[in-house]
């Protein structure tokens, strides 16, 4: 069984893919805290695996993408303790011979690279990956597999939290799409502003990207919040919450 770890700024996502299976199951999410210890991670993952009937001995390969370097040592040590395995930590040297190429390997988030690899492997054509995480990102891959560029915007929850944190009178609200765009009270005003506003942002970005680089793009959505904007259904060819996990697997298998 392969174990992928995707350490993001909001969640550490850990997924298992069985030999010959096409699905990621089970999947464990741990809220990201920079000071998580290896022992704490080991304890909670051990319990999760036990509850799901997964024997640690059956895990034979581990790939790790982290955009939170503060967590790397704990995650690596957790793998050593729990599986007696050395995880493969994706870094800028992981990209040689991949079908996806980037001109700025040292800087680009390994989660974005993993997304690009999984999407390009699936479609074998130009694609745009929209990742609704802590940051909302667009990763643009051309038909040869070259990453043409990336866009980074505050994610929906990040925008919402910042509004709450930087104002005196605005409350925290649920990320729910109201039926009307014109806000009739404060909660509705924020919900409509964020959800319809981000709908426009995503549609506008996709359209601007296509104007500047007119390719036949497949658009793939991923990330924890990818299902909230139901208004974008027709803009996405696929929504795949496990795209990053799959990309981590592909990059790791390429290396060992
Ligand atoms: N299944 C889910 N349903 C609703 N919200 C989610 C879900 N998974 C994650 N979230 C929220 O979506 C946001 C982005 O999460 P995630 O995609 O895990 O971010 P990151 O990759 O930056 O860690 C977070 O605020 C998280 O709490
Ligand atoms: C853009 C990101 C913050 C997204 O992280 P996430 O929202 O998944 O937690 C991450 O990929 C990152 O730190 N990237 C480095 C900068 C870059 O990709 O150009
Ligand atoms: K992510």
From TrEMBL:
GO terms, molecular function: ATP binding; metal ion binding; pantothenate kinase activity
Subunit structure as annotated in this protein's UniProt entry: Homodimer.
Binding sites annotated in the UniProt record for K(+): 131
EC number(s) given by UniProt: 2.7.1.33
Binding residue positions for substrate: 109-112, 186
Active site: 111
Gene3D superfamilies according to UniProt: 3.30.420.40
Binding-site list for ATP: 6-13, 134
Organism for this UniProt entry: Echinicola pacifica
Domain of life: Bacteria
Pathway: Cofactor biosynthesis; coenzyme A biosynthesis; CoA from (R)-pantothenate: step 1/5
UniProt keywords, alphabetically: ATP-binding, Coenzyme A biosynthesis, Cytoplasm, Kinase, Metal-binding, Nucleotide-binding, Potassium, Transferase
GO BP annotations, alphabetical order: coenzyme A biosynthetic process
Name of the protein this chain belongs to: Type III pantothenate kinase
Protein family membership: Belongs to the type III pantothenate kinase family.
